[in-house]
Write a structure and sequence with these properties.
Length: 85
Amino acid sequence: MELHMMALWEVVCQIASTISFSDDEDSLIWQFSSNGTYSVQSLYRIINFRGVQPVLVSSIWSIKIPPRVQYFLCRLLLMVLKYQI
């Protein structure tokens, strides 16, 4: 048991040695957006897509087709469209 605790302590010391400190002021960074700032849109993507934005969905909006067709394709790709028999 004592050898196991010693091995764990060595791991902690190795991790601690990689930490660097500076006099810079701390800041918050939102990891779910490209610029590091929080937005409701980025939170919405996390909640609804678990952080994964389907590539095809964003490309649908750049196609020059009627908006109702864009909306239909978007819903279809997101598998929210329900088929009724």
